[in-house]
Specification:
heterotrimer; A mainly alpha (272); B alpha/beta (454); C mainly alpha (282); A: 272 residues; mainly alpha; MetI-like fold; 14 helices; B: 454 residues; alpha/beta; D-Maltodextrin-Binding Protein, domain 2; 6-stranded mixed beta sheet; 5-stranded mixed beta sheet; 13 strands
């Protein structure tokens, strides 16, 4: 197929322009993070200050916070994805009473801003003794993730090939087997996408861990950034370095699984 | 299930849900604050061999602040081996978010660093969540340790309506004072002396502008920094007693008094004359002082908390002063204290808590506070460094608290004053509103609050 | 049968999402400071939402942000996805990754970077001055007129990657025979786009719009860290008002009311979008 040279140049221009637009702010953060922390350090004359990362790591108590983040993320992702798989399967392949209404009820969870429910949530969690525990931080996020996950998996299951399900049924497989042994393996890209999105959102969430653990025992990585923000002045260089540290796990996971990720988005996207 | 049966089930569930929700009013399940046991006389200043865990929430997260509290905590635990301090430090913003919620917890902290403002400390006092410390103050001699002008910032009436009079609820470690930082070399090259009065300061600004310099740096994107410019400026025109009433949200003054409008007009005059950097409303607070340090600008009106960073960047070149309203007259400028340490009403170990607060604000503690680069609220003149901008900052704070007037931060006045003031000043700077409109907006907020209080 | 599959999800969801929502509704009819016992005030809070000019302004801003978070990214996404789908360019995975990166970084960090870019002496003004457009340079986040669009542009930056990838998904399903036929008929790239590509991705556009509109109306982090609602009140948004009232002013009931109104608004708008979207794909 022939494309004119004009078309090809235009394509490159568009892609490069938007790629540059996307990259520039991210690069500026990187640059800030390796700059001198204070004016006196600047006078030392070095260009790269890699020690900012070690300083940010220790001042931000990252070893503790990262560990908590990992734990919370693992719990939230595994529970939420599991539940969403099953709920999405029900919505996507079965007919039952109240299906439409119930689905909108699940959809509500994506639409509610966290700020609106966080205060009542805190007091209710406190009355059952869940504040300052891992589950107190994880359970609300599981609920949020189930809302999106159900929406997502329903879309995938709706679009899955009917004939395969029929074939499975003809072979005598029950509903459970069809899900776990046929559809799930086929749906790996879509599920991987869900896993990655849920992980990304859980990792970056800051309000729920802050409020659910007021005494700081179960704080997650994004909250470490607050250590660099004083009442009046903030330590921008270390803040940037800390921000890089917080973003790094997500970026690494994203890049590594990019093939599955994008493919999952492609195939998991809604076939309404 | 039949359709009717399903519908009936849903109906039942909804009704049950509504009834159970409507049952209890919010806040009724929270721990009611215990009535103080044994009205008075039960306190003890001798905690000798007591075994206890003291939970302290503070916001001393950065650099020198963190250092001083760590050292003091260690020293306290050494002196009282039975006491373990469980320290939870979080940023100023985070503390603001979590403290209000955590106060009513069964396991609330014992000592908290609460913002003096009406939104926080005032609200907590009103809700009866903080322990009045008058008896401890008498026992430990805090009324002698602190000048009244400083202690008023941690004082509220018992119902929280009057700020500045009543019971003492906390003690601060550090002081804060707002003044003018300047570049000595720039001032010299302009052939100027350090301005002694606001008039001279005005002239200096004009001279700087004429010589092609940026006279003043201001980074007002967060809206509150302009309040620190307006505050001291207001001191040049209005009576400190009135400003104090306005700033603390106590009745007896009015924003529409002409002096206040004059102060606002002066600020707008400075903006129109081009005395500020370009686009102060869009400039970061840190970018402004960093610009001064980099040689762009002659003056910067800011708080003592900037001194350490400015000294690090500019060394000997930076200075600090506060102009007086009249030649040789007393200094009146905005300032206050760092967040005071308070004791919660539900604390099981109030004696230990009080002893801790006493310890970290003692005369010895002040030395450690000064050593780690903070401005000690007491013994300021004594502990001043030999030279440098910090010496000048200490000197000014000492002078203002002893013979001058420490004007309260104007956003202490009402719960919404921070927003009202910040937004109005941004409008004034942008030329969107007139000085009259500014004072009217402030009066509306202040008047409504004062009118509805008490 | 299906209820068994739904149960675990629904149980957790009901306990930790639906119940708090119901509690928030309950809270919204009280006046409560979070410390003492609340007082019942009926629908007063809701009346305040409607009459308070500041809140009306905030909701207005949220609607404007839809243009930046949703409509613009969809337009950009359509172009980018079309190019990525049809173009014979090298390094497609690189471009896909880079364009998606803004989604991955925490909002707080995004705000820090963009504050620097928008500073009066920041890169944007430097670039404008560099090409001789000095007149356009201004303190973006401090400008009463331009602060909201400036914040909105950050939203565009964040959303465009997500939308691109979603649309790419739909486009990759279009059989290439359709394009061959069009080429043989003499159609250029632009006609190809409007005649074949666009109609085929209507479903994906609906999804993209749904997700981004929700994001636009729910915006909090971004405003909190960049402008705090300023200058003046030119960038206030409903979620920030909820947060302020709940945590700074001690008006928890009022905060809940604003939150509920926002949720209802989000739900209504998305209902409309999805109805229109469904109708166009049948």
């Amino acid at each position: 197929m022939m494309t004119s040279r004009f078309e090809r140049t235009a394509n490159y221009v568009v892609l490069i322009a938007f790629a540059a637009f996307a990259l520039f702010p991210i690069l500026s953060i990187l640059v800030t993070s390796i700059g001198p922390e204070t004016a006196s350090i600047a006078r030392e004359g070095r260009t790269f200050h890699w020690e900012n990362f070690t300083a940010a790591w220790s001042q931000g108590q990252f070893s503790r916070y990262m560990a908590t983040s990992v734990l919370v993320s693992v719990i939230v992702v595994s529970v939420a994805v599991l539940c969403s798989l099953m709920a999405g399967y029900a919505f996507g392949t079965m007919r039952f009473r109240g299906e439409q209404v119930l689905f909108y009820v699940f959809l509500l969870g994506i639409m509610v801003p966290t700020e609106a429910i966080i205060v009542p949530l805190y007091f209710d969690m406190r009355s059952v003794g869940l504040t300052n525990t891992i589950w107190g931080v994880a359970l609300p996020q599981i609920a949020q993730s189930i809302a999106f996950g159900t929406y997502w998996m329903r879309a995938y299951f709706r679009g899955s090939n009917r004939s395969i399900i029929e074939a499975g049924r003809l072979d005598g497989a029950g509903t459970h087997r069809i899900l776990w042994q046929i559809l799930v393996p086929m749906g790996r890209p879509a599920i991987t996408t869900l896993v990655l999105l849920t992980f990304m959102w859980t990792w970056n969430e800051f309000l729920i861990p802050l409020v659910m653990s007021p005494s700081g025992q179960v704080r997650t990585a994004p909250l470490a950034l607050a250590f660099f923000q004083g009442q009046y002045v903030q330590g921008t260089t270390l803040l940037a370095a800390a921000a890089v540290l917080v973003a790094l796990p997500v970026v690494v996971v994203y890049l590594f699984l990019q093939r599955h990720f994008i493919r999952g988005m492609i195939e998991g996207a809604v076939r309404e | 299930m039949t359709q009717k049966a399903t519908a009936r089930w849903w109906g039942l569930i909804s009704v049950a849900a509504v009834v159970s929700l409507a049952a209890c009013a919010p806040g009724s399940g929270t721990a009611e604050p215990d009535e103080t046991e044994g009205g008075g006389g039960e306190i003890s200043t001798d905690i000798g061999d007591v075994e206890a865990t003291l939970t302290v929430w503070d916001q001393e997260v950065r650099g020198g602040q963190n250092e001083q509290i760590e050292r003091l905590n260690e020293a306290f635990m050494e002196e009282h081996p039975g006491v373990t301090i469980d320290r939870v430090s979080q940023s100023f913003d985070d503390l603001a978010t979590t403290l209000r919620l955590a106060l009513t917890d069964d396991e609330a902290p014992d000592v908290v660093q609460a913002n003096n403002g009406r939104n926080t400390m005032g609200a907590f006092v009103e809700a009866g969540q903080l322990l009045p410390l008058n008896e401890y103050a008498d026992a430990y001699g805090w009324y002698d340790r602190y000048p009244e002008s400083v202690l008023q910032y941690s004082t509220y009436s018992e119902d929280g309506t009057v700020f500045g009079e009543g019971n003492v609820y906390g003690l601060p470690q550090v002081g804060e004072v707002v003044g003018v930082f300047y570049s000595k070399s720039k001032l010299e090259s302009l052939g100027l002396e350090v301005p002694a009065t606001w008039e001279e300061f005005d002239a200096a600004l004009a001279a700087a502008k004429g010589a092609g310099e940026i006279p003043m740096q201001l980074g007002n994107i967060e809206a509150w920094p302009a309040g620190h410019v307006f505050g001291p400026l207001q001191g040049a025109y209005a009576d400190p007693a009135d400003i104090t009433n306005l700033g603390l949200g106590n009745e007896g003054a009015s924003w529409t008094a002409p002096e206040n409008e004059e102060a606002a007009a002066k600020l707008q005059e400075w903006v129109n004359a081009g005395y500020f950097n370009e686009g102060p409303n869009g400039t970061d607070y840190d970018a402004a002082w960093q610009a001064l340090a980099a040689g762009n600008g002659v003056f910067l009106i800011g708080g003592s908390w900037l001194a350490a960073d400015l000294e690090d960047a500019m060394g000997e070149d930076v200075g600090f002063f506060v102009p007086a309203a009249e030649d040789g007259g007393p200094l009146a400028t905005t300032g206050g204290t760092g967040l005071p340490f308070a004791v919660t009403q539900d604390s099981d170990v109030p004696d230990v808590a009080a002893a801790y607060i006493d310890f970290i604000t003692s005369d010895d503690a002040m030395e450690i506070i000064a050593e780690t680069g903070n401005l000690p609220v007491n013994r300021t003149a004594e502990l001043a460094p030999e030279s440098g901008v910090q010496a000048e900052v200490y000197g000014v704070f000492g002078e203002v608290t002893s013979s001058g007037s420490l004007l309260p931060y104007l956003d202490y006045a009402t719960p919404t004053m921070g927003d009202t003031l910040g937004q109005s000043l941004q409008g004034l700077i942008a030329g969107q509103s007139t000085p009259a409109e500014l004072t009217q907006a402030l009066e509306a907020d202040y008047g409504q609050f004062v009118g509805s209080a008490g | 049968m299906p209820y068994g599959f739904l149960l675990p999800a629904f149980a957790l969801y009901a306990a930790f999402m639906l119940f708090p929502i119901a509690r928030a509704v309950q809270l919204s009819v009280y006046e409560w400071d979070g410390l003492t016992v609340g007082t019942f005030v009926g629908l007063d809070n809701y009346a305040a939402v409607v009459t308070d000019p500041r809140l009306r302004e905030a909701f207005g801003h949220a609607l404007i942000l839809i243009v930046f978070f949703s409509l613009l990214p969809v337009a950009i996404g359509l172009v980018l996805a079309a190019v990525l789908n049809r173009a014979k360019v090298r390094g497609l995975p690189f471009f896909r990754t880079v364009i998606f990166l803004p989604q991955v970084v925490a909002m707080v960090v995004v705000a820090v970077a963009w504050r620097q870019i928008y500073a009066p002496d920041g890169s944007l003004n430097a670039a404008l001055r560099g090409v001789g457009l000095d007149g356009l340079a201004r303190p973006w986040l401090g400008d009463f007129t331009f602060s909201l669009p400036a914040v909105g542009t950050i939203g565009t930056w964040v959303s465009m990657g997500l939308v691109t990838v979603l649309l790419l998904a739909g486009m990759s399903r279009i059989p290439s025979e359709q394009y061959e036929a069009a080429r043989l008929d003499g159609a250029g790239a632009v006609r190809e786009f409007f005649a074949i590509t666009l109609p085929a991705v209507r479903g994906e556009i609906t999804v993209a719009l749904t997700l981004t509109i929700i994001a636009a109306l729910k915006t909090f982090d971004l405003v909190y860290v960049t402008t705090g609602g300023g200058p003046g009140t030119s960038t206030t948004v409903p979620s920030y008002e909820v947060y302020r009232r709940a945590f700074e002013l001690g008006e928890v009931g009022m905060a809940a009311a604003v939150g509920i109104v926002l949720t209802v608004l989000i739900f209504a708008i998305n209902l409309v979008v999805n109805r229109v979207g469904d109708r166009s794909t049948t």
